[in-house]
Design a protein that fits this description.
The protein has 21 helices and 14 strands. It has 665 residues and is of the alpha/beta class. It folds into 2 domains: 226 residues, no CATH class; 300 residues, Alkaline Phosphatase, subunit A. Strand 4, helix 16 and strand 5 form a beta-alpha-beta unit.
Length: 665
């Protein structure tokens, strides 16, 4: 018995001795210091909520735990960015890092950098009440011309003494905690091993650091941004608790802000020219039809035979035989344009009527703005809402954005593999389109009607691979992407074949478009300011006689107003598009390229740099856009310039002032 006790106490003593020695290890000390800052950020999150509790009504434990756990992702990124210099200096594989002077420098770097970060975080406890959003980098330009800051800051510290006390408290914890963590040298028998182990540790630290600031180690996902907080938000306001201010500042570096625009002197004058506010006048009964939107990765108009009958001296057949046939029984827009050039531009444009201008909405300072998405508006009419994307869950921030815009059910790679295993992963981007579209049809068949669902394809993406069993099934052409375009077109054919036998099919409006144009361009007429944005826009309904090719201008932001108009939706909303089915609306398209705003109206394309109009083209007759006709058509240019100024002013000012929804009166 006694020998057993002796053995246990002996092991305990050795364990404690090892841990005490381990605590001084430079890498363990680094981890503990970073965890200390993570703890202080978490305490700050709790304090932020308590100080602003009235702005977050109906909070419950489940909702708060989701906020708290989600916030850790953003805290980690902020902590790593803030402590970048500290991490580098402590990771250098040289003995001078144990020198007293060097350690003193490290200490003050740690205190100053984290002290500043925590100060900004604490200041937002109060400043949030004025802006209702986390402070971003534009705080520096906003107060850059204030000459009395040194007078105001002491007054703020006194007036908001409770926030000041909290900051003093967490700084006390910071100093106390750091001073208790020892950084000591543990010399190996041979000094060379110290350097070897230090050098070997560097790539591990780099990998962990990069994964930490990205929020993920997967190559197919973008680094987390402000919009990703929406993935953990029950309501949009929760994003401001999930985020921390240093993260919001870091992630808006080099991101343009929306400056106040005053082309027009009054709101009344502006509203007469252009307004994104829609006031539906229809008194018809609301149609409880299902709505399915299909967004195809990189599906340029160039790939379609039906749009390009004159190419190759009339011999061009294209690579979309199924979609060409579907267009024959659909309402299709010949002059349809994307509102952006990237996948992350497409979702806000298609599902919320928000174009991409200068910077994608989801990456902007204003991505926490309240918006009215198609999912939310249809959910208010009793719709079941869902979003499908075969990529790893959270890719490109889609899960966060759709959660904020009313899509209650998200189906990604994880949900697919839970039912079908991992054999259908393409190894790069997601589940093969054929398999995922089949999964999509099966899921739609389980949803209560009416439902609204969006699917975003993945297979027509570099490196343009095909499933092994179908590698020789498509003719392809001079570019690698052609085979994957044919494959996705085939996947759509199989989807419609399967779906057409399901009971919900005939009661469904299908909308098909692309997220953006492909970077793979063969024909010169697509390598210019309008060709870079030409995409398909197809409306198909088994119960409607939609067999028409419309030669009017259309854009992605028109999809939401058109769907709502078709369904006879009767509430006001904001969208930077128009109802294409309404013959009384003026048709135009708006996008941004190479520091120029672009307006398509009638036969003309106007380029406007924000101050003056340098170029005007007849993009329909001048397919290569070589003839600038600005000087010959000043009246047309002036009229279009007034229009584009009104669009820019509405967009910038509404984005800046968080006026993207109709507030209840």
């Amino acid at each position: 018995m006694s020998s057993t006790h002796d053995f246990s106490f002996s092991n305990l003593f050795k364990f404690l001795k090892l841990n005490l020695r381990f605590n001084g290890n430079v890498y363990i000390a680094l981890i503990i210091n970073l965890l200390l800052i993570m703890l202080l950020f978490s305490l700050s999150r709790i304090a932020f909520y308590i100080f602003n509790i009235s702005y977050f009504p109906n909070m419950n434990m489940h909702r708060f735990m989701l906020i708290f756990l989600g916030g850790l992702h953003f805290d980690l990124t902020a902590v790593l960015y803030t402590n970048m210099l500290f991490i580098v200096m402590l990771s250098l594989p040289f003995n001078f890092r144990f020198n007293k002077v060097y350690k003193l420098i490290l200490k003050w770097i740690f205190f100053i950098t984290n002290g500043i970060a925590l100060a900004f975080n604490t200041a937002d406890f109060i400043y949030y009440r004025f802006t209702l959003s986390r402070t971003t980098l534009n705080i520096f330009s906003q107060f850059g011309n204030e000459n009395n800051l040194w007078i105001l800051i002491p007054k703020f510290l006194i007036d908001y003494w409770y926030a000041t006390l909290f900051y003093i408290f967490i700084m006390f914890l910071l100093v106390k905690g750091f001073n208790r963590i020892k950084i000591e040298r543990h010399q190996m028998k041979k000094p060379i091993f110290n350097y070897i182990s230090g050098i070997l540790a560097i790539p591990i630290i780099v990998i962990l650091f990069v994964g930490g600031i990205r929020g993920d180690f997967r190559h197919s996902t973008h680094p987390i941004t402000i919009i990703n907080a929406g993935e953990y938000a029950t309501v949009s306001e929760d994003m401001n608790i999930i985020l921390n201010t240093p993260f919001a500042i870091y992630r808006t570096i080099n991101k343009p802000t929306f400056a106040k625009i005053n082309y027009f002197k009054s709101e009344q004058e502006l509203e007469k020219i252009y307004t994104p506010v829609h006031n539906p006048l229809s008194k018809e009964k609301f149609k409880n039809q299902n709505v399915v939107i299909i967004i195809l990765e990189s599906f340029s108009r160039e790939f379609f035979g039906v749009f390009n009958k004159s190419l190759d001296n009339g011999k061009y057949k294209g690579y979309t035989p199924f979609l060409d046939s579907l267009i024959g029984v659909s309402k299709t827009y010949y002059y349809a344009f994307a509102n952006g050039r990237r996948s992350i531009d497409a979702l806000p444009s298609v599902t919320a009527g928000i174009p991409s201008v200068q910077v994608p909405f989801v990456l902007s300072h204003n991505s926490t703005n309240k918006i009215n998405g198609l999912g939310q508006l249809l959910k208010s009419k009793g719709y079941h809402t869902s979003f499908f994307h075969g990529a790893p869950n959270g890719s490109m921030g889609f899960k966060a954005f759709t959660n904020l815009t009313g899509y209650d059910h998200y189906f990604g790679k994880s949900e697919y593999e839970q039912e079908h295993g991992s054999n259908d992963f393409d190894g790069y981007w997601g589940i093969w389109d054929e398999k995922f579209f089949s999964f999509f049809a099966d899921k739609l068949n389980t949803f209560p009607q009416p439902f609204h669902s969006v699917i975003f394809s993945v297979s027509s993406h570099h490196p343009y691979n095909l499933p092994k069993n179908l590698e020789k099934s498509f003719k392809g052409g001079s570019m690698l992407i052609y085979k994957t375009i044919e494959y996705t077109d085939y996947s759509l054919k199989e989807f419609f074949k399967k779906a057409s036998s399901m009971p919900w099919f005939k009661n469904t409006l299908f909308v098909i478009t692309a997220d953006h144009c492909s970077a793979e361009i063969k024909y010169s007429e697509y390598r210019n300011a309008d060709g870079f944005f030409k995409v398909p826009l197809i409306f198909y309904s088994p119960k409607e006689n939609f067999s028409s090719m419309e030669y009017e201008i259309a854009q992605q932001t028109d999809i939401m107003p058109t769907v709502l108009g078709y369904l006879n939706y009767d509430k006001n909303y904001v969208a930077f598009g128009k109802n294409l089915f309404d013959p009384s609306t003026e048709k135009f398209a708006f996008n941004y390229l190479d520091n120029n705003y672009q307006l398509f109206s009638g036969d003309y394309l106007l380029l406007f740099d924000g101050n003056h109009t340098p170029e005007l083209y007849n993009y329909k007759s001048d397919r290569s856009l070589k003839n600038n006709i600005y000087s010959k058509n000043p009246e047309i240019a002036e009229k279009m310039e007034i229009k584009i100024k009104a669009i820019i002013q509405q967009y910038n000012n509404r984005m800046r002032d968080n006026r993207l929804i109709i507030k209840p009166s």
